[in-house]
Structure formats: C-alpha cells, structure tokens
User: What shape does this take?
Amino acid sequence: MKVLFAAPADGWDRWQGPLTRACPEMELCREGDPAGFDALIYAPGYPEDGGTLDFTPFTRSRVVQSLWAGVERIVTNPTLTQPLCRMVDPGLAQGMAEFCTGWALRAHLGMDRFAQDGKWRGGEVPPVASGRRVTVLGMGEMGRATAQALAGLGFQVTGWSASGRPVQGIEVLAGDQLDLALARAEILVCLLPDTAQTRDLLDLRKLALMPRGSWLINAGRGTLLPESDLLRALDLGRPGHAVLDVFRHEPLPQDHPFWQHPGVTVTPHIAAATRPETAAPVVAENLRRAMAGRPLLHMVDPSRGY
Ligand code: NAP
Assistant: This one.
C-alpha cells in the first residue's frame, strides 16, 4: 500500500515513526506520481506553497485520512471526490476535555479574583460544581468527552447538537433549542465545527441570552462568533469573559482588539492536538479498511461539512 503524507514537512518527524509502526505494510512517501498512491494522509498547510491541493490526479486513492478533527479547509475542495475521513483520536478528545475543564474551573472558582496585591479577600466561599450550570455546544467526539468530564466533577451539564442524539448522563437539547441552551449557560463551552450552518451562529442577539457575567470558552472554530458582536456583548456583560482558542485569522494579528480587551483570554489554538501515538492506530485501521473495501470509520458527510 503506497500512501502520500500530504501534510506540512514539520510534521514528518513526529508522524513517520508512529504511522509506520502502526501500519508496517504501508510505504509512506512525501512525494511521487499521484496516480500511484492508494491513499493520502492529509493535514492543513499542505501544499506548503499556499496553493490548493488538486485531488483529481489521485485516481487510485481510496481514502483521504485527515490528521485533524476539523476538516473545513478540505471538505469544500471541489476536486475532492475520494472519501474523506476526519481524525478521531482518544488523545485528542482527552486533551480537549482537560483544556475545557481547566478553564471552566477557573471561571467557576473565580480564580482571577486573587490578585497578589496585599488585599485579604476572605468572606466569599466559592460555590461547588453542583450549583453551576454549564452548556456544551457540539456533542461530537470533543463535546461528549468534555461534557462527561464536567459532569463527572458534578457540574449541571446541558449539551446541544443538531440531532439532539442522547449521550449517557447528559441532557442533550436539539437544534431548535439553542436559546434554551444559551439561557442556561453560566459557562458555555463551544465545540462546534466550522460549517455553513455554524458560521456566525453566536451573534449579538444569541450572546445576549447568556446570563450576565457568564463565561464563554470557544475551542471549536473562530467563525462561530462575529468578532465585533462578541466585543460588544462583552462590553454588555453577556458573557462577562471569553476564553478564545480559535480565530478567524490565525495567528491572531498583534493589533487585534482581543489582545487588549480585559474580558478576553487568548490561547493560540492549542486546546487539543492530535497525538501521533494514539492516532496512528486509528489511521492504520482506516487504511486497511480502504484497501480491503470495508466500510471506513469517521467519514465526513460533505453535504453537512463535518
Ligand atoms: P464531531 O464529532 O464531528 O462533532 C460535531 C458536533 O457538532 C456534533 O455533535 C454535531 O451534531 C454538532 N453540530 C454540527 N453542526 C451543528 C449545527 N449546525 N447545530 C448544532 N450542532 C451541530 O466533531 P469533534 O471531533 O467533536 O470536533 C468538533 C470541532 O472541534 C472540530 O470540527 C474542530 O473544529 C474543533 N477542534 C478544535 C481543536 C483545538 O485545538 N482548538 C482541536 C480539535 C477539534 P450531531 O451530533 O447532531 O451530528
């Protein structure tokens, strides 16, 4: 099986070992005749000249396996006719659950109150998690892991997804119940993909439904929030603070108002990374399935965009 590593060169050293150990029958290449490849392993940033990958000459390829969970940069490529599979990696989901739980606890416990300024801020006892309502938008691999970690700490967790598909131990609201999901969100965790339906979804009118002083944590995609609406909403106190890991333009430009706003915490798209050691077996399984003509795992539905 001949596979093209269609990912930026700086990923080669991290991925080559785990991938070839997980799939020893694979010949993993960095270049070659497109018509000779059985599959592609893809990550955003390829090709590195900034151009768009043309999938047309990959006539023999049976699958394009993404190394990223988010596929918005490739699913809209009009030359892509091969099946596209997104990354589902236990290490990625665990990292996301830890990231969102950590920031949710910072919000919940009001950790920022304790400036090292000589003032003894006694008297106000932090609440316990069972008294705090958290909403998670997006109940896929990331959202489920995060919602269950938060529920495990005792938070009152509400999930929201297009389908409202049940998740053990969590109340999940469906598409038309977004307003209710937002009204409950003392802490809002956003783990939605970037699609035509989610773009600009949380506009000023929607943000105004959040409780005053609430926290918003966005680790899905930056396109969810119109930036000027979020800044206006923060000034109005709904939400009171935003932790933003993803942006419309990355890296976030140095002169962007998010860097200066006291109600914003910027993290540089580090919420969760695909871990080669846990992800390589997932890739190997899908490559083998493709070669054997068996059903692929984690296929993207191009009509939905995720
Ligand atoms: P996933 O398994 O495909 O789940 C997507 C979830 O979003 C599903 O629950 C889906 O609903 C829901 N959804 C999609 N469109 C919706 C809509 N219009 N209205 C309501 N719900 C909608 O994806 P995932 O693996 O959890 O990843 C989610 C996103 O996280 C990725 O697309 C990526 O953008 C982002 N991400 C970010 C980082 C980071 O470091 N910041 C790392 C990894 C991933 P259904 O369940 O009904 O289908």
Summary: Residues 55 and 81 are 8 Å apart (CA to CA).
